[in-house]
Amino acid sequence: MELSFSRTNEEIDKLIDQVFAASGDIHHPTVIREMVLSALKIGQEIDYLADLKLINRTLREMRYTAKVFGPYRHKKKVTVFGSARTAPDEEMYGKCVRFSRLLVSKGYMIITGGGPGIMQAGNEGAGSENSFAVNIRLPFEQAPNSVMLRNPRLITYKYFFNRKVAFVKEADAVAVFPGGFGTLDEAMEVFTLVQTGKTSPKPLILIDDEEGYWERFFNFVKQSLLVKGFISGEDFSIFTITKDENEAAEVIQNFYHNYHSMRFIDHRLVIRLNKELLPEQVATLGEEFPELVREGDKITCCSPFPEEADEPDLAALPRITMLFDHHHYGLLLAFIHRINTF
C-alpha cells in the first residue's frame, strides 16, 4: 500500500487515530501523524539496515534534546566553544570561567560540549545548575567533565550533526575561545548559518588571547576572502573580536536591548521588539537600510500574523515587518544593532 500524508490511507489512518487515543496527551497530533507516516514510509522504502539505524538514532537524539532543553525555553543561553586541551592554569581557562560567571549573573545559562578544557571552564563558571553539556562519543578527550557528570542537563550524542543542531538552535549567542579543528569547525558552522539565514541572527563573539589568535584569523579573512570577493564587507557584521570578557558579555546583553526575536512568514520578515518604535524611528531605519527591503515594500509596524499563533507567549510584543532581500543577512545584523540604539 502506498501511504500518503493526506487522509487517504483508510485503515492505516483509523489505526493511527486509535493509537493516539490509546496513548493520550499527544501534542499537535497533525504533526505527530506525519511523523508516524514518515516512519512507516521509511520502513516501506528503505531496506538498508545501516540507514534505518541512523534515522532511528537521529530521531531519538533529537527527541531527547528537545525534552532536556524544553523546560528552559524562557531562559536565554550562550554556547561556549573552545579547545578541549586548554589547561586549568592557562589564562584563557580563567577568562572563560569569569565570562560564564558574568553571564549567569545577567540571567543567562551556558551550553558547552561537556568535555575538558574550555568546555569545563564554561560549566565551572556557570555552575552545574546553570549549565548544559552536549557531549559527543569520541575515542579520546571527550568524557564528561566533573562539573556536568551525572547532571540531568548532560546529553551524549553519537552523531556530530545532532549535537551541532543543539549548539546553535538552543543558543541566543555564541562565544568562541581559541581552539583546534573542532573549534574552528563549530565557529565556521555558525558563520555560515548566520550568513545564509539558516539560523536566526545572534551575537558571535570571538574571544581572543594575548597572542591574537582571532586577530590573525581576521587578517586572513580580509586578505584571502574579502579581497578575492568570496565574502562581502557586510559579512564582518557577523562577528565581534575582543580580548575582554566584560566587553563580550556586554555585546550579548546589548544585542537584546530592544531586539527580541524574528521570524519569516514566506519572504516577509517579522521582527519582534521589547519596546515599540516611534514612527520617525521606523522611517530612519528605512532610510538607512534600503538594501534590506525588496522593491515596492517598506518597513512598517504590524500586529502578530496568524502564522505566529504557535508562539502565543510572544503575542504581546510590538513588531516591525518588511519583505526582506535575502542577499543581505550580514547587513541584517547591523540593522538589529541600529534597532537597539533606539
TrEMBL record:
Catalysed reactions listed for this entry: AMP + H2O = D-ribose 5-phosphate + adenine
InterPro entries documented for this protein: LOG, LOG_fam, LOG_family_nucleotidases
Class of this enzyme: hydrolase
A Pfam family of this chain: Lysine_decarbox
Span of the signal peptide: none
The protein's Enzyme Commission number: 3.2.2.4
SUPFAM superfamilies in alphabetical order: MCP/YpsA-like (SSF102405)
Highest taxon in the source lineage: Bacteria
PANTHER family: CYTOKININ RIBOSIDE 5'-MONOPHOSPHATE PHOSPHORIBOHYDROLASE
Protein name: AMP nucleosidase
Species name: Pelotalea chapellei
